[in-house]
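fyi for ur records
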Amino acid sequence: MGVHRQEWTCPLVRVSRCRTSARPCGRATHCGEAFSRIKEPSPVPESISVPALWQGRCQCGDHTYEASGVPDDPHLCSCRHCTRLSGAPAMAWVGFHKSALTWTSPAGEPSYFSTWPTLHRGSCQRCRTQLTSVADGSDMIMVTIFSLARGAELVPVGHSYRDEAMPWMTITLAPDPQRHT
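which gave:
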């Protein structure tokens, strides 16, 4: 007996309701799966309060860092490298000047490997968290948004390789601050 999902929409929440092929289950759970509630997109803030210091780390904590200054170009990327490395439809990145980022744990910088001849990715060798992306000749270092302790405050303003994104993926991007001048 297969499990099917029937989706319906109410004004506040979209709910996936479990159904068997014969009839609705009528319970809050079915085959151990709870109803999933998916909130509709919330309005995107026009601006954030920028802390003086951003702190981040890998999952296991071997690599910790601090970055100062205004974060640059928070965006999603759906290139084949990001999707394969993350196992997700996109990775979320934000940039800082290289001189503004300091590795603060005894482990220091993560291990780097090249996903392109001029692009190098940094990850923790212990827990394998993807942390950074650095392009040859750039004065910027990109960090994964959710390696930052306050990463949820950064809303993507762009989506690289959007045409390669999954067709079912819908994104609400923040207004581009450079267009508000």
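Residues 9 and 89 are 24 Å apart (CA to CA). thats all i got for now
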